[in-house]
Design a protein that fits this description.
Chains A, B: Keywords: Hydrolase. Chains A, B: This is NUDIX hydrolase. The structure is a homodimer. Chain A has about 190 residues and is α+β, with helices and mostly antiparallel strands. The first copy, chain A, is built from 2 helices and 11 strands. Chain A has helices at about 80-90, 150-165, and strands at about 10-15, 25, 30-35, 40-45, 50-55, 65, 70, 95-105, 110-120, 130-135, 175-180. In chain A, strands 4, 5, 6, 7, 8, 9, 10 and 11 form an 8-stranded mixed β-sheet that branches. Chain A is elongated, with a radius of gyration of 19 Å. Chain A starts with 10 loop residues before the first strand and ends in a 7-residue tail after the last strand. At the A-B interface, strand 8 of A face strand 8 of B.
Chain lengths: ~190, ~190
């Protein structure tokens, strides 16, 4: 059972008269409580030829490695949120680059957005949500211990595009994008 | 006053112990009710050298012209949501292209995402949320009667990039992006 956040009456799931899909509608005041996907924003922090990863200190995927990322907050932009998460989780100051990947995770009701980002110095530290933070060269990436398919896919694309020479700043960056399926595992 | 959607008790706005910003927290069950920005997804539907616009039949900006767009729904991807809105508002079937613009509208707690899209035929019709729908050449765009700054900015970028020959399908498309300021008016 759900309750109305506006008047505390009970909620019924039904299709409103002027709508085509089921919504959470208050039985007393009639307010429709819409639900929408949330954005997870993060970076690919690059220092030299290395990428910065965080080992998660929280569920889900405790102990697995991730790019710094988290839920976008009210009042910030996607890019500012990605920079904030990079500071909070990895203690790293970055110069933000362009959007690099957009991954739809419909079954988790999320959209994951990763930005290219440059570290101006090799300064980083584990935030409260990280067990450790470290720079990895391509051949050292812990592919079997990555936390999420969106992180794995973004890193795969990144190393392919970097090898092709299209992430040098002299080329326009095309956003990589695809849908993540429920069955996908690391 | 707000109420907990889980147990109907009262809500207090405060910073939880393990957090750094104010949240809506239930006084009884302790549930934190997170609030996050919502995505508005739409298309730039192109037929020949023309772009399809809808005149809004609903608030806000009733009577003003917009690209077809609306709130992304649970269970769909950004691209699928943009195609759905194009069918619902403009009655147009499109072949979806790449992401073209990402505009942060922090004061409205929204992110606007527009995809390039091709109409395979000049078939369209006004949906319930549109007064009329029409194809416009660049010199006929009703610039003074556009509904939102994100639509105006996306159309401006589109015509600049098209004139520069970089939307032909032979070039990688770079996502155009910027933050919309509260003071911006059409």
């Amino acid at each position: 059972m759900k309750f109305c956040s506006h008047c505390a009456a009970s909620i019924t799931v039904k299709i409103p008269l002027d709508d085509s899909r089921e919504r959470h509608v208050c039985d007393a005041c009639g307010m429709v409580h819409y639900q929408n996907p949330r954005n997870v924003v993060g970076t690919i922090p690059v220092f030299g030829d290395q990428v910065l990863l965080c080992r998660r200190a929280i569920a889900p995927r405790h102990g697995y490695w991730t790019l710094p990322a988290g839920f976008m907050e009210l009042g910030e932009s996607t890019s500012a949120g990605a920079a904030r998460e990079t500071m909070e989780e990895a203690g790293a100051m970055v110069t933000m680059g362009p959007l690099y990947s957009l991954l739809n995770v419909a079954h988790a009701e999320q959209v994951h957005l990763f930005y290219l980002a440059s570290m101006t110095s090799p300064v980083f530290s584990a935030g409260e949500e990280s067990l450790e933070v470290a720079l990895f060269s391509e051949h050292d990436i812990p592919w079997q211990e990555l936390a999420f398919p969106t992180v794995k896919q973004t890193l795969e694309w990144f190393f392919i595009d970097r090898a092709a020479g299209i992430l040098t700043g002299n080329h326009p960056v095309t956003v990589r994008s695809r849908d993540i399926l429920p069955a996908e595992k690391i």
